[in-house]
TrEMBL record:
InterPro entries, A to Z: DUF6807
Protein origin, superkingdom: Bacteria
Full protein name: Methane oxygenase PmoA
Cross-referenced Pfam families: DUF6807
Amino acid sequence: MREWSVRVNNDEQTVRAAVVTAPLPPGVTGAGAQVIGEDGRERSAQLVTAGTPSVVWLEPEMPASTERTYRVRLTDQAPPPAITLTLHEQWVSVQANGQLFTRYYFAGFAKPFCFPLLGPNGEVLTRGYPVEPREGESRDHPHHKGFWVAYGDVNGVDTWSERGKIVHQAFEVLESGAVFGRLRARNAWCSADGKVLCHEERELRFYALPHLRMVDLELTFTATDGEVVFGDTKEGFVALRLPDELTLTRGTGHILNATGHRDRAAWGKRASWCLYYGTVQGKPVAVAFFDHPQNRGYPTPWHVRDYGLFANGPFCRKDFGLPPEEPVRLPQGDRLTLRYRLVFLDRHPTPREVDELWAGFARTLQVTE
């Protein structure tokens, strides 16, 4: 059987840009997949063979309390990739439908990062400095490079300001696809003298729809070299440095979070999502940053600044005026996994729309045969 029906149920709130995963029946194989909706239209679909074999597609919007039926068909030929990953000497280029989405730099710097990040219509959504400085832009905080992960206190070592290093070790996966592109890398977090603090496995998935682009990030830290302690500091954690023209201080930008705090009042507040929006290159844009309900410290406080730093702070309490807690400790051999999503839009969404986009990340649509 190479064709079968599945039902997709959404029992909770309306979701947008939700990833649907339909497991393959036992013994079914193919090179590609097609998904046809009740309206007869074909959805872009991707056959995933790693782990639990499945077919994956994106549901642009699905109202609450609805069920949809799809025909899933395996094919002998994979469709052309919409997201293409290409390995170069110091970076991996990521293209969406033939246009640059980002580059993942893994060598030549103190830590890996994505730069630049481009919106659905080619809008540049990262500051150029210090990787590719642009005339007239701000030149503060040279450790703010594109979209990155780092922290100011891991066993007392500061990788945020690059006193410590995050060293790329190997790629485990580089995958192009009709729905998403994926890279999985192994990194070592190290002190200035090269002592390994912990190991981190990083998976990035890149998606593109007509009016939005998305990046899903999953981080797994493992205490491979003794106990790991994430101290209490605002200097972290997953971060994006936005272009000056999208900031409050030098551009058209505004900030909004899920609890209704706006602009500078959003700093340090806990929320399931945070949004930065404004105008770039004369076009309306928005960047939404989502926390996942299963993450440690959810909902995260947001280290979001008026000058364009857009970061979360899941391990920080003191600097944000929150009640103190014990530091996050990983005993030898323990693991900590965290998941986040970035969404880049070519418009200014309503708070309700952002709630629904967050739900598309945080909720799992039920798939049955």
